[in-house]
Amino acid sequence: MRRTEPRRWRLAVVSVAAAAGALTLSLAPLTPALASIVTTATGPSMTDNHGSANIAVAGPDNSLRFYRAVYSTTIWQAETVAGAGTTYSAPSITVNNGGPNIAAMGTQDYLTFYWAVYGTGTWHAESVAGVGTTFSAPSITSDGISASISAVGAGDQLMFYKAADGTTTWHAVTVAGPGSVG
User: Fold this and answer.
1) b/e for 85-110, b at 16 or more Cβ within 10 A?
2) Domain ranges of the chain
3) CATH architecture of 32-176
4) Nearest to residue 95, comparing CAs of 51, 130, 136, 126?
5) How far apart are CA 76 and CA 91, in angstroms?
6) Are 114 and 56 in contact (CB under 8 A)?
7) pTM here?
8) Residue pLDDT, tens place only, 22-54
9) What ranges in the chain are assigned the alpha helix state H?
């Protein structure tokens, strides 16, 4: 190896680090509202339902997708839960009364709940919390009689929402006040 090669390597590392620092500084002045628009949803969420795998994931153009396969097969059923411009966080999925339930943050920082009956391909959307209320990817669970969702709310509060199955009324509770998370 020639003596000049390590210097080129160090110069390349320093150049990349400087470019990353400049990019970070140029993004610093973004307002919180603009920051939520450019947030990229990442990662799938998965649950099991009596011998089948269920996956929810953000799709192209901020859409929401659902995939399901019976174990021991390689055939995946794919469905669009919500179209373009609807999903701005990683979704969270659970199964309740035999059907999938998904929660995701939507445009303008609202929280949406989606549910379907297996095999119908029809997804129903419910507003959990309105515009300017949700600032994180949610987490959802169910107990067979209701669905529960948690997410970070305005002012870095931890919020909890619960609705009984068969109703569209969501009850909100502040778990931890302003500045407690984030």
Assistant:
1) ebbbbbbbbbbbeebbbbbbbbeebb
2) 1-30, 32-176
3) 6 Propeller (2.120)
4) 51
5) 19
6) no
7) 0.78
8) 333 333 343 344 334 444 567 999 999 888 999
9) 5-27, 32-38
